[in-house]
Design a protein that fits this description.
Length: 121
Amino acid sequence: QVQLVESGGGLVQAGGSLRLSCAASGRTFSTYAMGWFRQAPGKEREIVAAIYWSGGYYADSVKGRFTISRVNAKNTVYLQMNSLKPEDTAVYYCAAKPGPWSTEVRSYGTWGQGTQVTVSS
């Protein structure tokens, strides 16, 4: 079982960049798929990006702007967010599941506490 702690959120102007980090505890990090999700006020939690061994999945709304990556030696997954838009404002969560990635919120059994990202126009 892993435990997750996100960091890197904050306030940024539209067009700016942020990098979120998610540090995981445990010795089996490399066997987990990692996902980044976000939840805006009044909206359901949604997938942003996911990664397993390599490559990844991106929601259409972030393709070409966000990049997910992981460094297994550091037990860390990142979300580089460029060209941020006000509609990217949300609490961002990282999540872990054994095996290949999934786009389904309910597939992920381990979640971080979330980090707030606010993009001003």
